[in-house]
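Two proteins were folded this term; both appear here.
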Amino acid sequence: VGSEMCIRDSNYMKTIFYWVILSIICGFTLTIASCSDDDDVTSLSAPGDIKYSDISSNSFKVTWTADPNATSYIVKIKDEWRELTDKAQTVSEPSATFTGLESENKYWVAVCSTTANASSASPFSKWIAVKMPEGSVARTFASGEGTEQYPFIIKTAGQLKLMAYLVNKTNEIKNTQAILATDQDEIEIEMDPTIDYTKAYYELGNDIDMSGVNDWTPIGTGLDNENIAMPEKNMFSGSFDGKNHTIHNFTINYSSNNTSAMCGLFGLSKSGCTISNLNVEGDITAVHTGTQETANYLVIGGILAYGYQAVITNCTFKGSIRASFTTDTDGTSIVGGICGTILGTINQCTVNIPASSEFIVNGATPQVGAIAGYGNSGYITYCKAVVDGSILAESKPIDDSREYGSARAHAGGICGASSGSSIGACDVTINGSIHAKSKKSSEEGSISTSAAVGGVSGSYAADMFGNCNILIKGSLKAEADNSVDVGGAIGSQVRAGYGCSALHVTILGEIAGTCSSSGSSSDATYVGGVYGTGSFQMGGISDSDVTLKGKITAEHPQIAMAGGIAGSTSTLTRCWTNIDTNALLSVKGGTAGASCGGITANLLSGGIYGCYTVCRGTMQATSETASGRNSINIGGIAGAASGTMRARKILTGCYSLIEGSLTGNGETVFAGGIVGMSNAYTNMNSTYWWSASDAIKGHSGIIGESDVFKMQDSSQASLEEAAQEMNIALKDSGYGYFFYREKDKCLNITTTLP
């Protein structure tokens, strides 16, 4: 019995021992497992309201809501690949700081609450992500060799800054064969001496957020060029393919006195430069602090500041740009959403200026356009501009102390001004405003001020232009002391280029030009649905039209001219104006009179062939001071078309229907269904008209009034009868063919002959 009791006692002791060991093991296991996502612990709850703060390129602080039952917290961290156990922390307060992290990486943090000696713990919270910003300049590109086959791949803001650094440093030490290095925020950047980074190939690997970058230096700074017209230093001549990715939150805040300041994602390009498939969204502000002792320039582009022999394709810009001078009254500012100045090609690019955004430029001769500020040479084709916000070019400040000088502001939906870039196949939608303003600071100043605004370009002088659609729901306006030019397509084109064609303008809003004073006999206001003023080396305006449902107005204390197609221009062929029921075409002149015409206010030279006006709204011309030869001229086709013995004015195969109102008000008024002011050197061939008012004659002027070519009424039968005679004249000249269009209840013109 004693031995059996000993055995039982021994087994009992063993059992107790095993239970103790098992309890210790299980207790330890439970303690270790208590900070898991799966355990159900009732004494503590998982921390909530996890937030990040003090985020830098390599550190951040994380905080959470304190648990009153917790004495400490376990914080763990992981990246995209693994949990970083060496960086896990146990803290007594509801916050932790992690350092020594990689910029641009993404991290996740989870937290659990524990009690003393980790005797009890909550489940871990959900993993909460945080994205580290770029510190400065990345050490390397994501991949690539800079060749066409293996371009450098850019995936972060730091890598984009690396590209800028390498390109600009290469320009600085061109032809140096040494391996170079620099130190920026303790990051060593090595340059491969076998690579010319200015000519390399680059691609975006994904969208880039630039919100943490506020010290951008353009790729190809363009600095140290003595002559901005022929740049040769610090250029980019490589290839950049955005792969349709977007650079978000791109910001430039520039303030300096560099003579030629260039601001943009890219600064200055060189022959061989291509930029394609890139979208930029941002805000650029540049302030030039230079003085008048030097010729100062501000050249700004959302993509490229100065496109010297560059090719820019399928790029977009969305946002705001502002440029100004603090002290220089002669400074020149040139701003464009794609390119400031272009001496190359811009193709299939789009600029969107949202309702909350603006392009605002000042200086002595500011030039601003949605696509380009100034077109020097090359082509702008298949581009699109949507102006929901505003574009403003303002000549200010102007130094009134000077005895002479001039200031002119240019603004346009595609180009501010152009003297050599051919523009074609572009679409412009203006829901907001495009304005140009040039005013003296006081009446004592002798400065001559002018402004030019166009739905496509403010002023224009190039070989080819055409095939554009312009929709104006907002406003185009120009205001100056001396003279302004405003057009639905072009403000002013003087003796350059070889004509234009296929310009289609719809005006639901307003086109207006206003001047407040007059300094010389040439001062005037010219406003037109397509052109303010237009004269050409060869040809004229053809196959263009205006649908007016809003207002076209012109005002000047000396002379003002407004036309459905042009204020003043040379030859017009197959053009038409439709003035809707509630629309207004109005001009108010002064001492030298006023002219208004359904097609043109003034036929400068040449003739008008196969054109027509249908006016169901109001056409009016007024002046309180005009008298004698300084008359009020208003006509269904032309306000004034007075020729000379050597230069006759010719109207062939044209017609007008004045179903609304055509009126002139002044001391001397010449009003006509076809032409207001005409003379013996004005030839009218098969040119028909009809007016609802018996007071209107076909043409007036110094040779008297005439009812020649008046139609019996505006019925289809009368129109088609007139068309037979007009088509004979037009066919013989090869200018086109009229046919009745039922939906518009009028004759339309086509180049197709039967």
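Next, the second protein.
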Amino acid sequence: MKQKLHFQEIIDKAISGGIWKQIIFLSTIVFGFFILILGLTLIVNHFLPIWDDDYLLRKIYTNFIDIGTQCEEDMLLPQIIAGIIGLLGSILLTGLLISTFSNIFERRVEAIRLGKVTYKNIRDHYVIIGFSEITVSLIKELCKKDETSKIIIMSGQETEYVRRSLQAQLDKEEEKPITLYFGNIESADELKRLNLNHAKEIYILGESDEYGRDSKNIGCTHKVCDIRKETKVSSQIPVYVQFDRIASYSIIQKMTLATEANIYFRPFNFYENWARLLWSLYSVSTNYSHLDYRPIQIPKKMTDSISKDYVHLVIVGFGKMGRALLLEALRICHFANYDDTQKETNRIYTIITIIDKDMDKLKNYFTAQYPYLEEQIHDIKIQYRKDDICSPNMREEISEWLKDKHRMMTIAICVSEPDLSLSLGLNLPSCVYEKNARVLIRQELYTNLGELIDENQDKYKHVKIFGMLDRGLQKDMLKDQLSAYIHQYYTCQYCKNDCQSCIFHIKKKEKNKFIKLLYEKEIEKKDASSFIEKANQSWSDLSEPLRWANRYQIDIYGIFCRTIGYDILKESAIPIVHKNVSKDISNALPYLTRMEKYRWNAERTIAGYRYDGTKKKDDSLLTHPLIMPYNELKKKHPTEISKDKDVVMNFPYILALEKYKMIKN
């Protein structure tokens, strides 16, 4: 049984309701009083005739809307009645009307200020769910790529706080497309306000410092799916989901999230983004140099002596950023001068040293997540050090390290406290700066001091600031088109059928030419839509763990290029791959193939796979029989080596498809 409302409650709800409720309430009051005045005047006029019946209604109406018409009356009684009618009309049609519309206007302004207004007709817009550390960076990227589309941000944080934060970091042009909504991002009803069915892209960032943020972001992803499913939307929309913790991000990479086909789920992590911006292929578009790495001159013969130079990466602070840098280094630090046919004492290893005062606890937590790193990544040695970078022993050890002319050192200061981070990075042993070792200092904001450090060409010329919140996201890093091409290449390569009848018209003996054929079509400006559509469809059908295997493959391409003496530049159009590039790759093929094998070993190990030589690959149990040293694979599975060779020979064309040009240095 519904509870009855009292009369006063009904009135209060009407005058405090929405615009239409208030207008209807006002109209009802005015019309009701007019009918009441009409009735009373008819009664008075019946007993004391003051106006002619033919003009009675017009008299009442004109006096009701204009109090000044009483002056037209000659008699006292008509003047009094006309004055009463005019006074009531004036109160209702001026005072009440003005106050009502003033209230409506004020409530509208307040609703906009608080982010409670919903715009139902916005189309082709970007949706950002949650206000986090990287929202500003994302907005800058969206404005850079698309200057015309609206951006709706929904957050459960106070709208005024969000607005002030954006105004402090964005210019006026970047602010223009933004509309702020206040709402609970865990509520499906609130999410429906965002016009998700008509959006271009959706970014689920979650709220800053919110407990259980990663789990809530997954829940929000499912709600987005359900909302689109309810309206029977079949088209697929990209949904980019931020995972704040490296642990949960690693977990989500190992499983396929059960989502509907109407979204394309793409997880990402801010700290990994920065790691890739520093050292992977994506560093081409930033001002960050690679790890301290002198390109090794490839000998003419495998038996010739090779460079003894080696990379030593020192990571100070093993929090979220430190772990992300370590994982990225494990994926890319596979260099040409590591040779597993040599005695172990003669092998040129990459060394990664992590220094943290709380290393005992942090190491156990990390190695529990990644249990096979040391036994399956053969060309990298990891050192976990419980120490303080400022301690005399540690400073002395760093100085000793730099006496080795073959050691190429990069020191990354990853502590989260900004002042301490600067102090540590600028007060290392003097030999660090004298020997031109690279130093990276994490700062969440790029201050004037950071700008001075970047511009310094004397003592601090190899010191760089990184980790800024407003620069940790590039849309190119979230695009999967190249990864889709790489996957389609593997699909064609492993296909056992004669494909002359398929859309590619690839002969059986040319299974490894999908990438090159696509590149040729793009260069010759021929229709490549069938290639692209097929690659995208195959990618959509791929499980999330295998998608990451393709995404991470391109990270090492920059090191491939430097190994054979090339730099990379981003072009505005697809560049021509010259024959000299293929010739240089062929000359270095044994080295590059070995590098690719060790990269693959590391990537699969980080993904959770363990070696099991007695079984076939099992993606559910995460076992693989091919995670082994290069020369062992060469002996036991010689046909597998050719697959790595094909990858290496194709990488210049993969780069070209993304408009990267290789230039001989």
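The CA atoms of residues 221 and 665 lie 46 Å apart. The chain is about 50% helix and 15% strand. These notes refer to the second protein only.
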